[in-house]
Structure formats: structure tokens, C-alpha cells
Amino acid sequence: MATKELTRTEELMNVIRVKIANRVLNPSDRLPSVRRFAATMKVSPSTVVEAYDRLEAEGIIRARRGSGFYVTGADLPPMAIAEMGPIRARDVDPFWVSKQSLETDDTVLKPGCGWLPPDWMPHEALRKALRSISRSDDSLLTDYGNAQSTLALRRLLLGRFAEEGLNISTDQILLTTSGTQAIDLICRLLLRPGDTVLVDDPCYFNFQALLRAHQVKIIGVPITTTGPDVEAFERTLKEYTPRLYITNSALHNPTGASLSPQTAYRILSAASAQGMTIVEDDIFTDFEPNLSPRLAILDGLTRVIRIGSFSKTLSASVRCGYIAASPEWIEGLSDLQIATSFGGPSPITSAMIVQVLAGGTYRKHLDEVRHRLTLARLDVAKRLTALGIKPWLMPRGGFYLWCELPEGVDSAILARRCMEEKIMLAPGNAFSTSQSAAAFLRFNVAQTQDPRIFNTLKRLMK
Ligand SMILES: Cc1ncc(COP(=O)(O)O)c(C=O)c1O
Which Pfam family is one of this chain's hits (predicted)? Predict the structure, then answer.
């Protein structure tokens, strides 16, 4: 069936509908005047009048005599985050990788997924902690958490930060239910719809999804092997005066890049000159062989907020993360956490993590995982290179390899075809704000062990 071409009037009506659906226009907001909207859309005023009249007939807007047209709020569709921002093919939008990772079963091989396989995690230590918790006081099993119940874990985190040279106090740490909740709370505290937020290009796809939900403008800065391109970073700050910059300073997702000291210095100087806040997502810190430069440590948590999580190294199932920031911000974030979730992680969760961290087995587990990852990284890089798939960088740790495909191969098309053969890939543009990473794939080396993955890639790339 041929698609009917839209008239100019219908196009204008759609523009208004999309603005209402995306909450750019909210109930009771005034629409642009007929003359202004006509000029913006390069149409005649009579076309705008017709579009407004028809939207009024549908009950979506209402005219107020002498004052203009207003949004009624009738039939407001639920917010669809995936539809906010530029429309992209579903196989490269920011939800594609998470959905394929979370919704497919164990029969699917997942070199594109973002966590370690279960047999790489410290399950014995977790079981032991669960057994011990089953014998604890009733209150641990039934009560809401409180400041006291999270103190032991906050103290453990303090000790770990102090080892890195970041000396802070327990009132500078808020436990959260995940790294994702940590970022969400920060966005709630600091952002308003329409603000500008800087991310790396490419960046972790869920930064984009979450920021879309907060209805902010997302600007990407190209990443280099030593962090963001500092010249572009400084230019972008001057041009857009963003409120926030969200980044992974070490073992960046998806590229594996880590900040050089020079880049760290320039970023902090530029941020300070513009009064911009930085969220340093340090979720991969425990995979590092030794500590690379960290913005939070250099700045002492003045304009940098550090967040982290136990999902990648201990368990994604227990759901626990944290925010380290200045005490005033922690107070505001804690209020927001009460307002939106009536507290942080379950007391059972924090008790479990304390047991695993305090027992010494965690450090041993990390040593083993780091060693296994080094071997897997070298092996997978070699096998991919043999297929013409080239790592952009050999990261100093972690489980990601950001790889460039042979010329002419599009990662979204390859990902779709591999999915038909039950192999889930992470196509580059799912991470890219500028959609300039069609030639890239992100591999998780711990999940890229099965020979079927390499055989299928070889066959389909032909
Ligand atoms: C860079 C980054 N930040 C945050 C998260 C979210 O982790 P959590 O499970 O703690 O929400 C992930 C998960 O993949 C991630 O890669």
C-alpha cells in the first residue's frame, strides 16, 4: 500500500503532537503565536491557523479569546523515552543492547552484553553471606533500612577511597539501589528540562536513555584513547554552557579508554571556568590493574560527583550502588531518594555486600578476574583481528573491546543478522550521539568465548 503524503497542515499538526507527547509542551502551556510558528516552519499563517483549528477540534489544544492557543492535556499519551530525541533505527537506539541483553534467554550467546557471566562472579562468597543473613535478627529481614544499617558499608567504601587518596567522611556517601539510580537522583537534583548535558561520543547507551527521560539536551564530545578530545571539550563548554558532564574516566564504556593526567587537568580546568558539574561514573574501577587519574580524587569532590556500583564485580542481582559528593549535595540527594523510593538499597543487600567485602575473598576474586580478563582480552583481540575486526585500543583492564569492522560492514545490519542466529551484538551507533559509529562493535571478552561467535561473524561478514 502506498503511503499517503502529508499535507503541510498535517505536518504542522504532527510537530505539535510530538512536542506534547515528548513533554516539550505541557498541559496549560501556550503554543507559539500563529505568526511566529508560521515563520519557524516556513509556511503561511493560514496553514498554521488551519492546523491549530483542527487540533482544537480534536480537543488537544484550546483557544483562549485574545490570548492564543493552549495545550489541554487531553489524551496525553504515556511518555515513550525511545521516541524522544532523534528517531533512529530500533537496532541502534539506546535501548537495543539493554533489551536484547535482558530479554533474551540463555540459548543466546551475548558477546554484546555488559556484564560478566555468572561463573566469573564470587557466588560462593555470596551464598555464604546469604546463609549468615538468614540467621540474623528479625529486624534485618523486615525493617526499612536506616542510616545506621548502611553505616558499615559506607565505612568500608571510605576505607577504599582513602587508599586511593580521597579522604572524605561518611556523610559524603549515599548508598543507592544501583549505579543507574545514583545518576537518576543526580539528574533529579541538578537538571531541569531543557538543560544541556555533555557526554562522551560514544558513551554508555543508558546515559542517553536516562537523560532523555529527564528531557534534557544531550551533546556528545568525541572520545580519544586518553579521554575526551580536550579541544572539542573546551569549545563545547563555551558554546553550550552545559550544566553537567557524565563520563567514565577509567575503562570507559564502550571504548575502554582511560584519562591521561593532562586530559584530566584540562577537563577540570575547563569545568571550573564554566561552573560545570561532573559526574564521574567509576563502575569499572575494581578492574583496573592500578589506579589511573580520577577527576573526583584530583578535585576532592568539589565539583565532581563520584558514583559507583557493585553490579560488575560482585553481583548485579543484589542491586547496590553509591554516590560520593559534598555533604550538602548528599543531603539533597538523600531527600530525593526518600521522596522517590523511600530509602536506598535493602538492608539485606548492604549486609550481604559488607560480608563479602570484609571477608578478604573479594580482593582475591578481583585478582583472579583481572588475570582471567587479561588472558581473554588478548585471546579475543587476536581472534577478531584474524577476521579483520580491529580493536581500536587495547584497554588497560575491564571486559570491553571496541572494535572497527572491515570496510563496508555495517554493525547494525550485522547485529540484526547475528540476532537471527542467536548471537547478540552491541552495534556502535547504540552508543553514539552523533551516529558516527556504524563501523564499530563493542565486544565483552568474557562473553566472547564460544567458537560459534567467530564462525558466524566470519560467515555473515562475507
Ligand atoms: C558505565 C555504566 N554505568 C552504570 C551502569 C549501571 O549499573 P547498575 O547495574 O549499577 O545500575 C552500567 C551498566 O552496564 C555501566 O556500564
Answer: Aminotran_1_2
CB of 309 closer than 6 angstroms to any ligand 1 atom: yes
What is the helix (H) or strand (E) element at residue 309, kind and residue range?
strand 304-309
Ligand 1 pocket check for 310: Cβ under 6 Å? no
Return the pLDDT at 83.
Answer: 63
pLDDT for the residue numbered 35? 92
Mean pLDDT over residues 188-215, rounded? 96
* Cα separation of the two ends of the chain: 34
Which of 100, 101, 180 to mutate to test ligand 1, by most ligand atoms within 8 A of the CB atom?
180
Confidence (pTM):
0.85
Report pLDDT for 145. Answer: 85
Quickly name the fold that domain 94-119+363-461 has: Aspartate Aminotransferase, domain 1 (3.90.1150)
C-alpha 185/C-alpha 345 separation (Å) is 14
- What cell does 196 get? 544541556
Q: Is the CB of 402 under 6 A from ligand 1?
A: no
Nearest atom in ligand 1 to the alpha carbon of residue 178 is 10
- Is residue 108 a contact partner of residue 424, using CB atoms and an 8 Å limit? yes
pLDDT digits (tens, 9 = 90+) for 241-299: 999 999 999 999 999 999 999 999 999 999 999 999 999 999 999 999 999 999 999 99
Ligand 1 proximity of 355 Cβ (cutoff 6 Å): no
* H helix or E strand, kind and range, residue 170: none
Q: Quote the pLDDT of residue 1.
A: 38
For ligand 1, say whether the CB of 205 is within 6 Å of any of its atoms.
no
Which of 206, 211, 399, 444 is the best mutation target for the ligand 1 pocket, counting ligand atoms within 8 Å of the beta carbon and taking the most?
Answer: 206
9-71 CATH choice from 1.10.10.10, 2.60.120.260, 3.40.50.1820, 3.40.190.10: 1.10.10.10
- How does pLDDT run across 138-194, given as a tens digit for each residue? 999 999 988 778 999 999 999 999 999 999 999 999 999 999 999 999 999 999 999
* Domain boundaries along the sequence of the chain: 9-71, 94-119+363-461, 122-359
Task: Give the pairing type, strands 68-71 and 173-176.
Answer: unpaired
Q: Is the CB of 204 under 6 A from ligand 1?
A: yes
